[in-house]
Design goal:
Elements: E1 3-6, H1 10-21, E2 30-33, H2 37-47, E3 50-52, H3 55-60, E4 64-67, H4 74-81, E5 90-93, H5 100-107, E6 113-117, E7 127-133, H6 139-149, E8 153-157, H7 163-171, H8 173-190, H9 195-216, H10 220-227, H11 233-243, H12 246-264
Parallel strand pairs: 1-2, 1-4, 2-3, 4-5, 5-6, 7-8
Antiparallel strand pairs: 6-7
Helix pairs in contact: 4-5, 7-12, 8-9
NADP nicotinamide-adenine-dinucleotide phosphate (NAP) binds next to helix 1 and helix 4.
């Protein structure tokens, strides 16, 4: 399988790196394009892939084309390549908010399209990508897409109607967690811990807690209850978080991001 990238910025590069690092794809299997010549030079020097400014060339030389430009550029790119793309290829879009239906309408032919919402931890192979099929894509197409994104983390399949929700949860999610981490480190410094120790304590607590949920399969509320002793320190801390309406804030943040994802696709 030859994989092509149109738009080779942050996410495009993360995928190129992941595909090569996985050992399942070699640089000869990958072809990239980007509007910036310097970006193309960087990609070919760093990863040994072929990279140039010609989007048409990418489509011609690839079996699977990953569309990794910003959402507002997707229509322009699809219209540019529609003349040379056909149903023997698979088009995978990672653009936030842009539906497979919109892409299929712009293509105006039965090309299989798949929409994927990855997240930035893909850069270190710890991403989570949600995959949804368009109306011309088969089970085999979904497996091919899953195979690619499995090189940079885990994958889940969802129906497309849930993709804006996924964007608001796991697409934007790393930023929410970074904010929580930053706030906890600052709080640790406020109570007297040196910043390096504070960062270590907070980060290992976040990783350890996530691993506990994953490995035990227990509901977070059950694990939380195990930390809380009656009248103890954790109960006092949790009471502050609940008084500050932490749950409502998270619900509001996710809803706002989901709404914005919908607007981007309009
Ligand atoms: N980053 C995330 O967390 C994340 C998560 C999920 C999905 N996504 C989606 O992934 C896509 C890419 O995001 P990103 O963060 O990688 O963006 P990015 O870093 O801006 O990368 C997009 C690249 O495409 C280039 N480009 C623009 N127009 C082009 C054209 N006509 N032909 C070829 N290349 C073109 C851009 O060049 P210029 O910079 O010169 O315009 C840029 O280098 C977006 O649609 C985003 O919604 C991102």
């Amino acid at each position: 399988m030859k994989i092509g990238f149109i738009g080779s910025g942050a996410m495009g590069e993360a995928l190129v790196k992941g595909l090569i690092d996985s050992g399942r794809y070699s640089p000869e299997d990958i072809c990239c394009s980007d509007i910036l010549k310097t970006r193309c030079g960087f990609l070919s020097t760093t990863y040994g892939v072929s990279a140039h400014r010609d989007n048409i060339k990418v489509v011609e030389s690839s079996d699977i084309i990953i569309l990794a430009v910003k959402p507002d550029k997707v229509r322009e790119v699809v219209l540019e390549v529609k003349g040379i793309i056909d149903k023997t290829k698979l088009l995978v879009s990672i653009a936030a908010g842009v539906s497979t239906n919109a892409i299929e309408t712009w293509l105006d032919k039965d090309v299989p399209v798949i929409r994927v919402v990855p997240n930035t931890p893909c850069v270190i192979g710890k991403g989570i990508s949600a995959i949804a099929p368009g109306k011309y894509s088969t089970e085999l197409h979904q497996e091919k897409a899953q195979d690619i994104f499995a090189c940079v983390g885990d994958t889940v399949r969802v129906s497309e109607s849930l993709m804006d929700a996924v964007t608001g949860v796991s697409g934007s999610g790393p930023a929410y967690i970074y904010l929580v981490i930053e706030a906890m480190i600052d709080a640790a410094v406020t109570v007297g811990l040196p910043r390096t120790a504070a960062a270590d304590l907070v980060l290992k607590t976040v990783i350890g807690s996530a691993e506990m949920v994953l490995q035990t399969g227990q509901h977070p509320a059950v694990l939380k209850a195990q930390v809380v002793s009656p009248g103890g320190t954790t109960a006092a801390g949790l009471n502050e978080l609940e008084s500050g309406k932490l749950r409502a804030l998270f619900t509001g943040a996710v809803k706002a991001a989901v709404q914005r994802a919908g607007e981007l696709g309009e």
